[in-house]
Specification:
The chain is an alpha/beta fold and about 650 residues long. It has 2 domains: about 450 residues, no CATH class; about 170 residues, no CATH class. Helix content is about 55%, strand content about 10%. It contains 28 helices and 14 strands. Strands 8-5-6-11-13-14 form a 6-stranded mixed sheet. A hairpin with a 2-residue loop joins strand 9 and strand 10. The longest helix has 29 residues.
Length: about 650
C-alpha cells in the first residue's frame, strides 16, 4: 500500500528538475515524433478520420444537451485534439464534448448564455492545471470505483431521460431527472407522431449498425485472394458500425430535406448553424442575460460548485480512460491532468464548452489502429473543414436523430454488471454505489457525487473503528500461557476505544483452557457468556474438537494468562488518541501482568516511549527469554533493549 508523506511530496516539488527532461515530459510529442514513420502516420490518419465521423454528430448533439446552439459543440471539438496531440500521453484519448460533462455544463449554466459555459471551461482548465502542477492527482483516489460507477450510471439515465422530449418531438424545460419526468407526463399528449417514428427508426438503425462491427466472419478461403476479400469485408462492416452516428444523421437529414415544405415541417429541425470558425478572444467576464447584467464575480458565483465538480469529474474520466487503454504500461496521471487543463484553457479562447475524453471515442480510436496522440491533429483538421464548408447543410438535421444518437451512446454507460461482481466479492460496497446512484437521480448530479464521497468516508471511518485484531491464546507447555495480537498498518483514534475495551475485557475474563496449539479468539465482546471457545485436547492419542461455554472453563482446570505480547512488525503508526488509550490499557494490564512490544520499529518505539513508563521492547529472539524469565529479568531486558 502506498503511503502519502506530505514532507516527502513537498521536498520533491522543491527539487529543480533537469530542463530538458522537464520539457520532454511536458511535451511528449518531442519523444514519440522521433520514431514517427509512414506506418504510424497511416494508422493515425485512419483513426483521426474515423473519430471525426463519430465526433462531429456527437458534438452537435452534446451542444444541444448542454442547452446551447449546435456550433458550440463544434467549437469545442478541434482545439482539444490539437493540444492533446502535443501534450497528451495516451494515443487512444480524444478530447472534446462528452455526454457527462455536457450534462454538468447544463446543470450549472441552464437559463444563462454561452458566456457562462466558456468561462466554466476556462476555470475548469485552471483548476486542472493547478492540480496537475501541484501533483494533487492522488486526491482522485479518494473517490472509489463504486461511487464512480453509481455516478456515471445515474448520469447516463439522467441524460437519456432528458432526451425523451427530443425522441417524441415535445417542447418543455427541465433541469433534473425528477422534473424531466414530471414535465413529460404533463406534455405527453403533445407527442408528434412523425418525430417519434423517426427516432424509433434511428434507434433501430443505430443498434443494428453497432452490431455489424461485432460480426465474426470466418476466413475459410484457401487462396490469398479469398482471404483478402474476407479481410476487406470485415473492415467494411467494422467501419460501417463505427460510422453509424454520421450515417444515421445523414440519412435523417436527407429524409427531412425531401419531406420539407415551406409552410410545414414534419420534423423538429436543428435550424440555422453559424458557419465559419469562432472568433479567437478571451472568455467574457461580463455578460447580459435578458435584462440582467452579470459581472465576473456574479458569473463565478452563479457557477458555484461547478467550478470544482466539473474539473474533478473530467479528471476522473480522463485518467480512467488512459488507464483502461494503457495495456500494462504506466500512466503518467500528472501529465494527463496537466494536458487536460491546458486543453480546456486554450479551448476557452475559441468559445468552447468544457471538454474531456470519451470512452466510446477512445474505444473507436483503439480499434482503428491508432499509433500516437498525433491522430488528434487529423481529427481537428476535419472538424475545422466541417465548420467552414458543411455547416449550412446541418439545418435539416432532425432533433429526433440527435436525441437518438445521445440515447444510444449514453445507455452503454450504465454499469449493471458491477452489482453482480460486488455481491460475490464485497457486498458492503453496494451501499455507496446504490446511495450515489439514488442521490444523483433525485438530488442532482453534483449533490449525488458529494453524497457518494460522504458515504465512502463513513464506511472508511467504520473500517478504522474496527481494525482487524485477532487475539491468540498460546500455551504450548514450554512458555507461560499468554495472549498474542498482531496489529497491521496504522491504529487510529476511531478504533482506539474499541480495541482498548476488547483487550481490557480479555484480561478481566475468566482464564482459558490449557491447549497444545494456538487458537484465535475473534470479536471478543462484553457478553462473554454467549461466546464459545473451540480448543483441542488429546483424547486417546487423537485430537478432538470440543465446544465449551466460558462459564464451564473453570471446571476444566485452567492456567491464567497474565502476559500480552503485541507483535509490531506490521505496525507503522499510532495516532495520539490511540497512544493515550494504550497508556490506559498498559496501566490496567500491569496490575496483574505485563505487556510486551515485540519487533517494534524505531518510529513506533519512539511513539510508545513518549507516553508509556518503561515499556518492554524486544525482538523475536529475546521474546522466549522474556516470557520464561521472572518479572525482574523482564525489566532488565527492557532497559537493555529499549532505544
Amino acid at each position: 500500500m502506498r503511503i502519502f508523506h506530505p514532507k516527502r511530496c513537498f521536498s520533491n516539488m522543491l527539487k529543480v528538475p533537469n530542463p530538458k527532461k522537464l520539457i520532454r515530459r511536458v511535451f511528449p510529442i518531442l519523444q514519440w515524433s522521433r520514431t514517427y514513420d509512414a506506418r504510424a502516420g497511416v494508422g493515425d490518419l485512419i483513426a483521426g478520420i474515423t473519430i471525426a465521423l463519430t465526433l462531429v454528430p456527437q458534438s452537435i448533439a452534446y451542444a444541444s444537451l448542454a442547452g446551447f446552439e449546435p456550433q458550440y459543440g463544434l467549437y469545442s471539438s478541434f482545439m482539444g485534439p490539437f493540444v492533446y496531440a502535443i501534450m497528451g500521453t495516451s494515443p487512444q484519448v480524444n478530447l472534446g464534448p462528452s455526454a457527462l460533462i455536457s450534462l454538468l455544463t447544463f446543470t450549472y449554466t441552464n437559463g444563462t448564455n454561452p458566456d457562462f459555459a466558456i468561462l466554466l471551461c476556462l476555470m475548469a482548465g485552471i483548476v486542472q492545471l493547478v492540480a496537475g502542477v501541484a501533483q494533487l492527482g492522488f486526491l482522485v483516489e479518494f473517490i472509489s470505483l463504486p461511487v464512480v460507477s453509481g455516478f456515471t450510471s445515474a448520469a447516463a439515465i439522467t441524460i437519456a431521460s432528458s432526451q425523451v422530449k427530443g425522441l417524441l418531438g415535445l417542447r418543455y424545460n427541465a433541469d433534473t431527472f425528477v422534473t424531466t419526468w414530471a414535465n413529460f407526463f404533463k406534455h405527453v399528449h403533445e407527442t408528434r407522431l412523425t418525430d417519434s417514428m423517426l427516432s424509433l427508426g434511428c434507434c433501430l438503425v443505430l443498434i443494428g449498425m453497432r452490431a455489424l462491427k461485432d460480426i465474426k466472419i470466418k476466413d475459410k478461403a484457401a487462396d490469398e485472394k479469398g482471404s483478402r476479400k474476407a479481410k476487406i469485408l470485415k473492415r467494411f462492416l467494422w467501419f460501417t458500425g463505427v460510422a453509424r452516428n454520421a450515417v444515421v444523421v445523414c440519412l435523417a437529414s436527407v429524409t427531412a430535406f425531401i419531406l420539407h415544405e415551406d409552410k410545414y415541417d414534419p420534423f423538429l429541425l436543428t435550424g440555422t448553424i453559424t458557419a465559419g470558425l469562432p472568433a479567437v478572444r478571451p472568455p467574457a467576464f461580463e455578460t447580459t442575460v435578458g435584462n440582467t447584467t452579470y459581472t465576473g464575480g456574479d458569473m463565478l458565483s452563479h457557477l458555484g460548485s461547478g467550478l470544482a465538480v466539473v474539473p474533478i469529474v473530467a479528471i476522473l474520466s480522463n485518467v480512467a480512460i488512459a488507464k483502461a487503454f494503457a495495456k500494462g504500461k504506466t500512466v503518467d496521471a500528472t501529465q494527463e491532468i496537466v494536458a487536460l487543463g491546458v486543453c480546456n484553457i486554450v479551448s476557452a479562447f475559441f468559445q468552447s464548452m468544457p471538454v474531456n475524453g470519451s470512452f466510446s471515442r477512445s474505444a473507436v480510436s483503439d480499434a482503428s489502429g491508432v499509433k500516437t496522440p498525433g491522430s488528434g491533429i487529423y481529427t481537428g483538421i476535419i472538424v475545422i473543414l466541417t465548420l467552414v464548408l458543411l455547416t449550412p447543410y446541418f439545418y435539416f438535421i432532425p432533433r429526433a436523430a440527435l436525441a437518438s444518437v445521445i440515447v444510444c451512446a449514453v445507455l452503454q454507460m450504465v454499469d449493471y454488471n458491477i452489482i453482480k461482481k460486488m455481491w460475490k466479492t464485497s457486498r458492503l460496497d453496494i451501499i455507496p454505489l446504490v446511495g450515489t446512484f439514488l442521490c444523483c437521480l433525485f438530488l442532482g448530479i453534483e449533490i449525488g457525487l458529494v453524497c457518494g464521497v460522504g458515504i465512502d468516508a463513513l464506511l472508511l471511518l467504520y473500517y478504522h473503528s474496527r481494525p482487524p485484531l485477532d487475539v491468540q491464546y498460546v500455551d504450548d507447555g514450554i512458555l507461560p500461557p499468554h495472549y498474542a495480537i498482531r496489529p497491521v498498518g496504522g491504529l487510529h483514534f476511531a478504533g482506539a476505544e474499541r480495541v482498548r475495551h476488547k483487550l481490557f475485557t480479555l484480561q478481566k475474563s475468566k482464564p482459558v483452557p490449557p491447549v497444545t496449539t494456538i487458537h484465535t479468539i475473534n470479536n471478543i465482546s462484553e457478553n462473554e457468556t454467549r461466546r464459545s471457545l473451540q480448543y483441542t485436547v488429546p483424547h486417546n492419542g487423537a485430537a478432538v474438537s470440543v465446544q465449551s461455554r466460558r462459564n464451564d472453563v473453570e471446571a476444566l482446570g485452567v492456567r491464567p494468562a497474565h502476559l500480552l505480547v503485541i507483535y509490531c512488525d506490521a505496525l507503522y503508526r499510532l495516532d495520539y488518541t490511540f497512544l493515550q488509550s494504550m497508556k490506559m490499557l498498559v496501566m490496567d494490564w500491569s496490575r496483574t501482568g505485563r505487556v510486551i512490544w515485540c519487533d517494534a520499529r524505531q518510529s513506533v518505539r519512539d511513539q510508545l516511549s513518549s507516553v508509556l513508563t518503561d515499556p518492554i521492547f524486544c525482538d523475536s529472539v529475546q521474546l522466549k527469554s522474556l516470557l520464561s524469565g521472572p518479572s525482574e529479568e523482564m525489566q532488565t531486558t527492557n532497559n537493555d533493549t529499549a532505544f
